[in-house]
């Protein structure tokens, strides 16, 4: 049964804790950390009304010492980046997507050699989005104190409870990792956990490509080719503006209005105000630039996109919806056989990506279901099923 004793009183009994808020202190810590082969990583930050999260604290733990790095004071992250880039050091995290986003914000390299305990749990057929508190309770019988989660991490000094919370979030990852790693190795999934960690690292590093952000605007699939090319320019402009001014995208121009501009192509400020909510100061700041982009696009005769331009993927046609359901049923069976959470193996997005690739004649990049560890599980069964099931609609010509 879980107990109420703080983790710091149970495991380990003698770890150090150091507050790092000067370049000299950070350099001293890095000299020690570069000798380790295992590192727990976590961050604390605040989500506000800005584009970027406000960084506050970076926690690093090497099984001997917790380093609490003050992100309000440290500005040179080159040494930590080198630490993160080392493939000789295993980095262990929990639910790290927002941590990786924060690393992008401050210019930190994405960590190589990554294992996420939340992913590890799903690979062992646990819940897909299991929180750290619940995972620790189930595996270690320890009750973590989580009251400081939503506290103000930018205040200085931090409270004793905040310090304890920050320490325990990384200290607990060592015994948790040991238990999960043993189960992963026994089930032959340890390398899969590393492979998935590498995929997360690459995905986080790739979000900086502003030129591809239009592909996230799924409502734009109805636009003809030239309008989608204009949408790509508008979305890249908005992304640069949002990041540069640190304000949410929707404060500049919501997705649906960006799509409307690409579709209706306003060439005057009056036409722009008819189809968007941009008024007053926003119109003075953005209006001329938006209208200018539309005019430039039309002057260049943008009805024909550049060679290799990627169109927004449309929804799966109605006649193929049953195929999505059948592929889902097959992947559910495979997930049960391999004792992996089906949401990790084959999410709805991955299922639709596979079906769309199939109905396009198998042209272009292979879907994720056929790549890497997912491909080793799903590729052969899916291919056999597609060949044997006469109810599967035929592929279109590529």
UniProtKB/TrEMBL annotation:
Residues 224-304 form the HRDC domain. Its cofactor is a divalent metal cation. One of its GO terms (biological process) is tRNA 3'-end processing. One of its GO terms (cellular component) is cytoplasm. It holds the Pfam family DNA_pol_A_exo1. This is Ribonuclease D. Keywords: Cytoplasm, Exonuclease, Hydrolase, Nuclease, tRNA processing. It catalyses: Exonucleolytic cleavage that removes extra residues from the 3'-terminus of tRNA to produce 5'-mononucleotides. One of its GO terms (molecular function) is nucleotide binding. It is found in: Cytoplasm. Its main location: cytoplasm. Its EC number is 3.1.13.5. Belongs to the RNase D family. The keyword Metal-binding does not apply.
